């Protein structure tokens, strides 16, 4: 009896494998703004998407029949500044919107759109202008939230 249970558990362990998927093209189709057509943004989204998919328990295989392609639609920073005498409060909201398409053997299976946001709030008693530069930490955070939403909405 023990031998039979051992063999069954051994065979079951060999038959359980993770689903394989491949990451297709990540296209930056933003029309306006500083990051319009920026290849670095597309490359960053692809890297984070690979990480999120592996964290979800999927294997990356370039020969897989399942493929995810992503189109980056929008990226912007909304700034809100409040100043009262020497006190100031700055709020920056980084927003990125993308559309992901799940393809099975080249045929569209599902398409979803998601939005990722990261918020940065700073207060000061002395106003210093940084010139409206992007915060890399907030950009990374918004991309991570975006890719997690895309993967969960695709329900792989």
Number of strands: 5
H/E element order = HEHEEEEH
The CATH superfamily of the domain at 17-75 and 97-114 and 134-154 is known as Lipoprotein like domain
- CATH fold-level topology of the domain at 17-75 and 97-114 and 134-154: Double Stranded RNA Binding Domain
Global structural class: alpha/beta
| Terminal-residue CA separation | 38 Å
* Shape annotation: elongated
Trace the largest sheet across and list its strands: 2-1-3-4-5
Total DSSP helices: 3
Q: Identify the CATH class of the domain at 17-75 and 97-114 and 134-154.
A: Alpha Beta
What are the segments in which pLDDT stays under 50 over at least 5 consecutive residues?
Answer: none
Percent helix, as a range, is 25-40%
């Amino acid at each position: 009896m023990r031998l039979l249970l051992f063999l069954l558990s051994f065979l079951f362990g060999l038959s359980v494998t993770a689903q394989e998927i491949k990451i297709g093209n990540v296209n930056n189709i933003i029309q306006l703004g500083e990051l319009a057509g920026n290849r670095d943004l597309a490359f960053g989204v692809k890297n984070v998407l690979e990480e999120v998919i592996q964290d979800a328990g999927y294997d990356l295989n370039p020969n897989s029949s399942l493929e995810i392609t992503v189109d980056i639609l929008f990226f912007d920073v909304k700034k809100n500044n409040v100043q009262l005498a020497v006190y100031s409060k700055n709020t920056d909201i980084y927003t990125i919107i993308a559309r992901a398409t799940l393809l099975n053997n080249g045929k569209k299976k599902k398409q979803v759109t998601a939005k990722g946001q990261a918020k940065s709030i700073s207060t000061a008693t002395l106003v210093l202008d940084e010139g409206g530069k992007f915060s890399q930490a907030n950009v990374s955070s918004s991309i991570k939230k975006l890719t997690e939403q895309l993967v969960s909405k695709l329900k792989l």
